[in-house]
DNA sequence: AAATTAGTTAAGTCATCGCTTGACTATTTG
DNA sequence: CAAATAGTCAAGCGATGACTTAACTAATTT
């Protein structure tokens, strides 16, 4: 029965924070040191270090020390876990949507928020 | 400068919980009612309802009431936000990896855990 | 060698999250 | 109509998360 990679939830958690997502965005353009990453954020360097540690443990980022600075880059292999999960599931979703489109239109679906009366 | 969709962080948060990820897995196979989703979990129905609400607000799941039961299906449009973000960024990552592969091999990168001495 | 730079760790604080229980609202079914 | 079914909401509780500051290490510069 359809099962997800043990690292997937951790990856999602790592990417669920806006600051960490912004870090991944920056690293998408180019590798950066810890302080280069920290510069634009209104936050202590220590906080950024912690975010990078979360990203690294999750498999979103790889780092390596060069002298006293630490270079950070995207962990493409780690990110592939997310990509693979998505592409694998997408196949199922498409099939379902074809079957259910008619029903959804007929029933005029409402979100839980704008409650059904 | 490379920016992410406003719903992305929320989507990641929704998918960061193992229970919610498991719910998405189940719904990947077939649409289900709230109690059908809840059945295999060792958790109150109320807890599952809360999880489904999180997934729906995030755009991971759509629901609609049929009588006294609520049908849940994957929100393929919402999930596309995640997919698109990933595929857009992947392009950048690949290029970087090509440039950095040599440096990484030479420097023998270490994780923050197994600390550099 | 002393001062600066880059990063790391630890401890503590405050907010949010995941869950529970209990009361309550619809919708079916007997 | 009464009882069961399916789901919802609210309050509360313990655990986790996102910071902070302060003290510290290691590499570079001067």
TrEMBL record, chains A, B:
Stretches assigned to the HTH arsR-type domain: 1-94
Organism: Rhizobium aquaticum
Record-linked Pfam families: HTH_20 (PF12840)
PANTHER family: TRANSCRIPTIONAL REGULATORY PROTEIN (PTHR38600:SF1)
Protein's recorded name: DNA-binding transcriptional ArsR family regulator
Lineage, broadest ranks: Bacteria, Pseudomonadati, Pseudomonadota, Alphaproteobacteria, Hyphomicrobiales
The keyword DNA-binding appears for this protein: yes
GO molecular function annotation: DNA binding
Keywords associated with the record: DNA-binding
